[in-house]
Amino acid sequence: MSPDQIQQFFRNDRFAEHVGIELLDVGPGRARARLEIEDRHLNAVGVAHGAAIFSLADLVFAVASNSHGSVALGVNVSVSFLKSAGRGPLVAKAEEVSINPKLATYLIRVTDASEHLIALFQGTVYRKKDPLADHLPSGAEG
C-alpha cells in the first residue's frame, strides 16, 4: 500500500477522529500526527490528560507499524510523561527502530509547540501475515 492509502485507511480510526488527532505524514516505518490540546483534553489540574497524549502517540505507533502493508497489532507499550503540557499543539513522531518478520519496535516522541519533549512512548507490535488492504472499507481500494 502507498503512503496515501495508509493515510486514507487510518482516517477510519474513529477514536482518533473523536479525540481530534490529525495525521500529518506517513512513510515506511514512520508517521507524524498533531493534536490541538483544548479544554476538553485537560485533566482535573488543568494540564493535558495523559490519555490524550497516549492516544496521540498510539495513533502514530499504529500508522508506522502498519505502513509496510501488513496488519501489525500492539503487544506491549510503555510511556514516560516527561513534562506537562497545556493548551496548544502537540506533535507525535514515530520512528521504527527494529523490524523482523514477526516483531517490530517503535519509538514515539511527543513534543509541544516549543519542541519540548513531553512524552516518550515505546511500543512493540506483532506483525501478522494478513495484508492491510484486506481490511479496507468497501470502495477504498483505489
UniProtKB/TrEMBL annotation:
Q: Which GO terms describe its molecular function?
A: acyl-CoA hydrolase activity
Per UniProt, the keywords (alphabetical) are: Hydrolase
Q: Residue limits of the Thioesterase domain?
A: 46-118
Q: Do the record's keywords include Hydrolase?
A: yes
Q: By its UniProt entry, which InterPro entries does this protein fall under? A: Acyl-CoA_thioesterase_PaaI, HotDog_dom_sf, PAAI_dom, Thioestr_dom
- The protein here is known as PaaI family thioesterase
What species is this protein from? Thiorhodococcus mannitoliphagus
Taxonomic lineage: Bacteria, Pseudomonadati, Pseudomonadota, Gammaproteobacteria, Chromatiales
